[in-house]
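To assess whether the prediction recovers the assembly geometry, we first specified each molecular entity separately, as shown.
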Amino acid sequence: MKQFQYVRPANQQGVLAAIAQPGTKIIAGGSNLVDLMKHGVMSPDKLVDINKLPLRNISGTAGGLHIGALALNSQVAEDQQVKNKFPLLSQALNAGASAQLRNMATVGGNMMQRTRCPYFYDTTMPCNKRAPGTGCGAKEGFNRMHAIFGFSDKCIAVHPSDMCVALAALDATVTIQGRKGTRQLKFTDFHRLPGTTPELDNNLAKDELITGVDIPNNNFAQHSYYLKVRDRASYAFALISVAAALDIQNGIIRDARLAMGGVAHKPWRLTAAEQLLKGKPATVANFEQAAQVAMQGAKAFKDNAFKLQMAPASITEALTHAAGLA
Amino acid sequence: MEDQNKGFEAEDALQPKDNPRRDFLKKSSLLTAVALTPGVAIKAAENHLDEKVAAVFEKLSLDITVNGTAHNLSIEPRVTLLDLLREQLHLTGTKKGCDYGQCGACTVHVDEHRVNSCLTLAMMVDGKKVTTIEGLAKGEQLHPMQEAFIKHDGFQCGYCTPGQIMSAVACIREGHANSEGEIREYMSGNICRCGAYPNIVNAIQEVKNGGQQV
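The predicted structure of the complete assembly is given in tokenized form:
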């Protein structure tokens, strides 16, 4: 690991001043960043430890729930308010990583984690995300884990988070603090598609800090399900994951939220499928139809064609579980 | 990651005393030190302790309590908790398996939470309490989980065992040891290449069902 300096500012002002300097990087839990630094994928000159900031609270608000950026993944997953109001988020968090890593990883850090594309991690390989202009090793390489939606010529990597798939489905917003003030972004606008600049995972500026996430109240708590399909039963990244949330009254779907993980450079919201389900009876046949609509525009590479079948089957299964028909 | 000081020591042993490269390092370090001017650094450089000059700039103070003993240490920011425990405090019970957070052999408790010490920078546990496998037993009296692992043959080669036991204790304390399925899920961050999983689950279930204080 390259040598670096380490600072631990006492307050937000100190953090914002520190991260405005070139070569700096925020560290919160460090579960992904330290790994990347050991691999030589990231090599900041200075780490800015933000753990002194009072951003660990999970608190009810008039419109929903606020989760501080430094709340631990385990803390959020076990939180009674989260379990009661947004069980989808709790399920998604518990599907991710291991108990040890969930005790380290924060909400903000989870959002900022990098892809696990092996070409990104291997510094001897070309990768436009790690070293812009060097090419994409995955496109013609071993691309079993890679995207089927929203990829570009420059990058076919997927975002690895489970938590983010649930937050995208739950219409969350992200609060971001810069030196000039605060701004809010829809969660679905936080991460970005690779386009011609895959080195940028998201729309957070270098000198900005995520301070928290807000989830609005909804009527999905009774009918939600997070399905994660992976190579082993636990502690592996998703081949496909589906966050499904339904508002069902007398067998009719009043509203629906659907998002997928393991398929794109960002959590992939399935709005066309949501629209199709609205007003329809909650039946497996309708879920299958929604899954077909969701897959429109999907395109596979050499090794990940199985995702074209696995994804719609997963959508159907997640919706079936969410509706209580499994 | 290698211990920086060890590297210097090893190099010293191999270098003749009048090695010109060492002289250059000493002189260039002195120039750097003068330019940046902390008095202590200049003094170190005058004493031809070029490695110490580097140390003055790079090392940070760390207060940490490990298994009940308070330590005030001076460390490089890139030292992980795992390397600190093993290389500086000589607590070698905590094992380095993958060193990338994938195997769980390095599991310790930080303020009662189980974490992967290989991905934890030591500076980030400043002011916190760490418990390692060495801190579980009370003198000669083994912790119930240690007893149960022995009774149920919860290991073969034993390399993953300290991490498994630290994780198992936390698993019960967290309230995630209520069924075999739940134990397997919440122990999934600890890999055992020998495949002692069924016996590990049995050991955890015995401690959990025995209602002993963990």
